[in-house]
Amino acid sequence: MDQWTLQMGYPVITILGNTTAENRIIITQQHFIYDISAKTKALKLQNSSYLWQIPLTIVVGNRSHVSSEAIIWVSNKSEHHRITYLDKGSWLLGNINQTGYFRVNYDLRNWRLLIDQLIRNHEVLSVSNRAGLIDDAFSLARAGYLPQNIPLEIIRYLSEERDFLPWHAASRALYPLDKLLDRMENYNVFNEYILKQVATTYIKLGWPKNNFNGSLVQASYQHEELRREVIMLACSFGNKHCHQQASTLISDWISSNRNRIPLNVRDIVYCTGVSLLDEDVWEFIWMKFHSTTAVSEKKILLEALTCSDDRNLLNRLLNLSLNSEVVLDQDAIDVIIHVARNPHGRDLAWKFFRDKWKILNTSCSKIYSQDILFHGENSLASTL
């Protein structure tokens, strides 16, 4: 266990098909690192000598059959193994149901076979295997182990996916990618591609509904989580119906002064409404932020205010966050971080953070100052 508890990080296993010998594979292990510059530094620090005893579970499959699970103990940098039933049309899958604390990479041929399997019949693979494949693919691409097109090709099957975990794995990876690509000239190509994957499931699931007494019509927990995940993706990437629905719900709240918005999508509706509608909506949310006493609702309302496309309103909010009578000290850094996540406020937040650092630092207790230095600045830097 010392290898897992005392060594930094965790490994990535790479499984390569052997083109010269049938039923043979090559398995390698190395320290998984996201940052390319850190990889170079790791080589100098001899982190390349890290080795783990890895219990690699593995199956072989094709369009109609999946083998029983086998286990290979990987203890060297590189090993050769013989795999039964492995032929040209078969794919390999490692770390079955994500029971091991490591990532798994494959040669491009095997990735494409797995993608083909997902598109033809994704239910051959378990829910956790599907989620694991998506998570591994995006993480490996982010770290430079895999071309970026592979994870984007994997999610082509999502229009047929009905389980929460694979959707959650995809959305968790897509939001940071979106923040990087939204500055690119051809961003609309990526945006339209994601909307295409989301559209079918969004239409099928619809929006949560309230009973006549205002309570939510209950479905299973997994179903509600899936619906929320898909609605958030649809609204975030600009689905027109999602935008219309959010605008209708928030306009109804303003006109009737009765909040009929289902609880589990309120944050999505508030944020979408503030970004799409005029300054009056922002002022209405600001008023509700001041009048509500519920801490959880207050937090959602404050975050919604950072979603505006109006740079003047974002600047106003940033400056108001310095007033502890308006925004609590512990929430001020959250305002900056959420404004920074807004493409219209990214540069405003970074400038404000630098210009007001002394005020931010001295207005907090010593303990909280250290927390900002460690968490706040890193969070802001990663967002920017």
UniProtKB/TrEMBL annotation:
Molecular-function GO term, any one: zinc ion binding
Official protein name in the record: ERAP1-like C-terminal domain-containing protein
Membrane-spanning parts: none
Superkingdom of origin: Eukaryota
Pfam families: ERAP1_C
Domain (ERAP1-like C-terminal): residue spans on this chain: 91-363
GO cellular component: cytoplasm; extracellular space; membrane
Protein family (similarity comment): Belongs to the peptidase M1 family.
GO biological process, one term: proteolysis
PANTHER family hit by this protein: PROTEASE M1 ZINC METALLOPROTEASE, THYROTROPIN-RELEASING HORMONE-DEGRADING ECTOENZYME
